[in-house]
Amino acid sequence: MSKKIIITIDGWSSCGKSTLAKQLAKKLGYVYVDSGAMYRAITLYFLRNHVDWTDKKEVNAALKEIHLDFRPNEQTSASEMYLNDENVEYVIRDLVIAEKVSDIAAIKEVRTFAVAQQQKMGTKKGVVMDGRDIGTVVFPKAELKIFMTADNAVRVERRFKEMYEKNPNVTIEEVKSNLEMRDYIDSHREVSPLKKADDALVLDNTNLTPAEQLNKALSWVKEKIKTK
Ligand code: DC
Question: Which of 1, 65, 69, 135 could bridge across to 8 with cysteines, CB 3.0–4.6 Å?
Answer without folding.
Answer: 135
